[in-house]
């Protein structure tokens, strides 16, 4: 007897921003493996389910990815309806591919339930569109750190410094000062608008409007902050 795994996107954290399908899967779940950023009010929908924390946070002891994948397979093989609850959208800068590979290797069925990304939630909270008609030519999502926590190597600086693009940098707080220096060196004007969004859709939500240079100065040497942080810059509306 084999169960089924639903990869459910929790969005930025507010249960009201869940899709109807996501809420349905959470209510029907027998086992929920959840990320740290998905913990909170959303878990209130999982009445009667076994809750298993498998979240990864920078600077903290976290479960290994192979352990998380093994848990998914083991619970599904028991015949359970399993939800893998992921923060934001499950397909963005997570470990979705590794977990899917483990399920496929074990012959276990799955589905992916998409959700609200931090980038769209952040601009909505700021009261601006993600793109400006006739000005923003594209949107690009990048990660602010690699597996070691450092700024990734091999960045496409020309693309990242394009002032006609809107760039959303996930997990960028600790490396943004270094990133900004590279952007300005690559030709991005220091006065390019920037937006820092923390804890979007949660009681701790904070939105800060700045310039790229100004935000870099604020964050240089700043104390670590556990709140989920997204930085957007480029052709943003005022």
Overall description:
The protein is α/β, with parallel strands linked by helices. The chain has two domains: 4-113, Cobalt-precorrin-4 Transmethylase, domain 1; 118-234, Tetrapyrrole methylase, C-terminal domain (Methyltransferase, Cobalt-precorrin-4 Transmethylase, Domain 2, 2-Layer Sandwich). Helices cover 27% and strands 23% of the residues. The strands form two sheets. It has a five-stranded parallel beta sheet with strand order 3-2-4-1-5, with helices on both faces. Strands 6-7-10-8-9 form a five-stranded mixed beta sheet. α6 packs antiparallel against α7 (212-219).
Class by alpha and beta content: alpha/beta
The number of E-state strands comes to 10
What do we call the CATH topology of the largest domain? Methyltransferase, Cobalt-precorrin-4 Transmethylase, Domain 2
CATH superfamily of the largest domain: Tetrapyrrole methylase, C-terminal domain
Low-confidence stretches: none
Kindly report the average pLDDT value: 92
**H-E order:** EHEEHEHEHEHEHEEHE
Q: What proportion strand?
A: 15-25%
For the biggest β-sheet, the strand order reads 3-2-4-1-5
CATH first level of the largest domain: which class? Alpha Beta
Tally of helical segments = 7
- Radius of gyration, in angstroms, nearest whole number: 19 Å
**How far is the N terminus from the C terminus?**
56 Å
Largest sheet: 5 strands, parallel
Task: Provide the fold topology.
Layout: E1 4-9, H1 20-28, E2 31-34, E3 50-53, H2 65-77, E4 81-86, H3 96-106, E5 109-113, H4 118-126, E6 138-143, H5 157-160, E7 165-170, H6 176-185, E8 193-198, E9 206-211, H7 212-219, E10 229-234
Parallel strand pairs: 1-4, 1-5, 2-3, 2-4, 6-7
Antiparallel strand pairs: 7-10, 8-9, 8-10
